[in-house]
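Chain A, query sequence.
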Amino acid sequence: MAPEANPIYKVLRSLWFPVSVNAALLGAAAVVVFRLVSLLAALAFGFDGRPWEADSLFDDVLFHLVTRGLQGVFDLGPYSGFGPIFFVQALTAYFLWATFGLAMYRTLAVRIASDDYVPMDRAFGFAWRAKNTTLLHLPAIALPTLFCWAVIAAVGLVDRIPYLGWTLNVLLLPVVVLFAVVMQLVWFLGVVSMAFTPAAVAAERRGTYDALGKAFTYLMGRPLPAVLYLVTLAALLWVLDSAVFDPERLRAALADLLQPRFAPVSERLDLIVRGEVDALSGFAWFMAWAHRLVLGGLDAVVRGFFLSLAAGGATAL
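Chain A, predicted structure.
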């Protein structure tokens, strides 16, 4: 049997993460735009903490939204009152996913298919023309989800009828279970397929419903490569983010490296390198901001590289 026909080889090959500088730069640009919008939203809605750190809460609140529903956004301890800012962030992230994200996928699709490079302006031009199909992803998920919810709610109203409703509840219970399972399955696949739907749009230039159908078919029909990809990607990004590129750890490491053992310790230099603008004033405050902006730019490039890895792996699948 030829090596290419071996199913294990196919699975391992699908975990290849192609690297593209243009895709990483598009991802970095998306990160910068997202952070600027988060800053403006934090200033507009009166964020309790540092406005320039409001973007760091987005991942946590998004996780609680997916796992706990709206309760995780509007009434979750330290995130209470963060709802309006998160709403702006979510809309911005969704639009960036449909434009900058799709441009990344297009770049990587050409890179994988023909080992060729697409200029960023051409990739973004394609994404801008096709953005409407990608933006319909959530409505395509929301409609069947809302339909299942409406059926369950209608059965719940029937169950309120004394005696007759209680009797019908026994007969309709399998229907409720079926629609509840379908609703949860569509929601779960809709969230997961956000990594794969743009790949179908970028590779085949077809409509959202067809691309969404292809993503669902792949996830349901070939779950092993998809699960291996998602697990490998999560582990890779977790190691890189927490052990190598964590911003606070990187600032602390740089501050320590810039304080040689044989030289007197400068507390002001330490604060400048760490970007502690609240503890400084005058020219030191300005330089702390300069250090923070430079490290923030480098961090955006790293995050863009992470996004390009995710897009590349999904496109390779």
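The mean pLDDT is 78. The two ends are 22 Å apart (CA to CA).
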